[in-house]
Design goal:
Rossmann fold; Type Iii Antifreeze Protein Isoform Hplc 12; 3 domains
Length: 433
Amino acid sequence: MLIVDAGLAKRAAAGRPLLAALFGSGFMAKGIVNQVMRYTPGMRIAAICNRTPSAAIETYLKAGVPAKEIRECTTAAEIDEAMRAEKLCVTQDPEAITAAAGIEVVIEATGHVEYGARAVLAAIAARKPIVSMNVELDATIGSILKLKADQAGVILSGCDGDQPGVQMNLLRYVRTLGLKPLLCGNIKGLQDRYRNPTTQASFAKQWGQTPHMVTSFADGTKISMEQATVANATGMKVARRGMIGLEYKGHVDEMTGMYDIDMMRSLGGIVDYVVGAKPSPGIYIFAEAQDRTQAQYLNYGKLGEGPIYSFYTPWHLTALEVHISAARVRLFGDNVIAPIGRPVVEVVATAKTDLKAGDTLDGLGWYMTYGQCENYDVAKAENLLPMGLAEGCKLIHDIKRDQVITWNDIVAPKASLSHQLRFEQDCLFHDCK
């Protein structure tokens, strides 16, 4: 990221910081604002859009911004006026924040599919580049949103700091070496599909997070969204529904012999995860050399004799790195991670407990469902319900625990933007009939 620090230093020296707008005021959003406002001279979070303005104000205050520097704005003109006066804005209106002429890049950090869809479409309509920290959105309707962004001539990108972006950074490095990646992996400390907001309440309180968000980490939904995002950006598939998900207490370097190399080659590479391995909470890429000379130099570099070689990043620093993505996208036109076109892997809704006809499904990380990866063609053939669209769906059949839910099992909510976009995506890349 050396080119990024130089670009931001140039902006700082010119007294013209990169002006970003942020959607969200949750745990991650607070970290982004603190990082940018305190420690990134060449950038400012000039405006925050949140359904509760007081939460956005509190996000600025927590980052050391004096209350007198914050204004509540309702229009794009008011936001631009505040920026000219070097003030900071909070607003409830996604269209106002994206339409403000002075905003140069938009960061989406809500983790909510329906709201995130509205925010991203507003940014696309205003032709503002977007950095998304919302893998739930990216995994569900990322392909159609990326197409709309391309048609508008703007970048829609995932972010540094979250595991998908970290995996893509390392993947690009491995490809630059001329090696052939076979596996993109995510390292987890815990996997229990039946966790819920009650079991996770204490941990959530410890870190100032919401119980349902923490639950999505524990029950496998979040990692499924992350790995589906990587699959859709690389063309890699999953080896089986739910991924392989080995448990191993050693280092990922010791795992290169645990995967079937012919299977990985036949699928064009796979996305996967491991529970308990080191370095945690990092990511790993397994790759193979393409000739004997490469293999000789990899062995000389202490990576072993192959045929699979391990590369890893021992951390992902979430909110501390997102500003890097904003600079990459706006200053250098460099997309961190994005769908390559037709979806490759889906995250499908699965019953966390026995469910009854008439139940209305709750959201990601709650009590009723968890998400697991499945190859897109299989998910379409079996008419499986995407996890990102499960919230608000009403069941018309009983569903047993661990049973995947199909479109035939539910009545979808009306007037849902995310459902409309998903229908458009499926019509484009598969069959909407």
